[in-house]
Amino acid sequence: MRYNRRAVSAKYPRSFHLPWSPGGTSDDKRLRDVGGLLGSEIVVTEKCDGSNLAYTRAHVFSRSHSGPPTHPSFAIAKATHAQLAHDLPDDLSIFCEYCYAVHSIEYEALPAFSLVFGVRDDAKGTWWAWDEVVAQAEALALPTVPLLFRGVVKTERELRALTESLSAAPSAFGGRREGVVVRRAEGFDDAAFPRSLGKWVRKDHVTTDEHWMHQSIRPQRLR
Fold first, then answer.
1. 18-46 burial string, b = 16+ CB within 10 Å, else e?
2. Are 137 and 73 in a shared domain?
3. Which end of the chain has the lower number of beta carbons within 10 A, N or C?
4. DSSP 210
5. 127: closest CA among 102, 95, 89?
6. In this structure, is residue 6 part of a structural domain?
């Protein structure tokens, strides 16, 4: 099928590290103020070790959104898209962590290779509330990334203790946990994205100098 560039959706925005995230590099951005995550309901999900992927009605996109992914490990993602594309509304992007190939963490029991973590209305420039994300994932028969906490934290100190505690636990799928993502439970628009979401990533998460795409493909294990 010929690729229609007019159907390109907006790629996933750069997510900022929490101020105390140990895995940030000099190229990463950090939240200067976590006030947008305090005093309102938040959800904390596991940050899974995969590839950023987006399903739209027209195409499946890798991180850059410059076109469909070309690496052989994305063959199952393309097959998944073929099955669910007709159920996707126009102007909607379903963002997933695609965990088919082992990157740095080996999982023991994934429920599927595509794990939904966000839904964007591309026409309105808005991000759906977490409950809406879950409902859309269920409608597509896709799992979400693991939900680790839902509630309200009132202080930065409390948020730091929560994220560090959750990040120290093993992955829900076996093996190490790469980190966690904190987001507001309610929906928000593109302009609010940088203050409505933050991540904690473990130090020295990447364990090899060779990029996973240049290594032999090692599939993760499904449960």
1. bbebebbeeeeeebeebebbeeeebbbbb
2. yes
3. N
4. S
5. 95
6. no
Number of domains into which the chain is organized: 2
pLDDT in tens, 21-80: 998 777 789 999 999 999 999 999 999 999 999 999 999 998 766 667 888 889 999 999
- What CATH number is given to the structural domain containing 111? 3.30.470.30
Three-state secondary structure call for residue 27 = coil
Spell out the alpha helix ranges (H) of 65-187.
Answer: 75-84, 130-139, 156-168
Q: Which domain holds residue 22?
A: 14-48+147-203
**Residue 10 per-residue DSSP state:** P
Look at residues 40, 44, 18, 42 and name the one whose alpha carbon lies nearest to residue 31.
18
Question: 107 with 165, same domain?
Answer: no
In a domain, 5, yes or no: no
* pLDDT at 153 exceeding the cut of 60: yes
Per the domain annotation, does 223 fall within a domain? no
- Whole-number Å distance between alpha carbons of 18 and 2: 41
- SS3 state at 9: coil
Say how many C-beta atoms besides its own lie within 10 A of residue 4's C-beta.
9
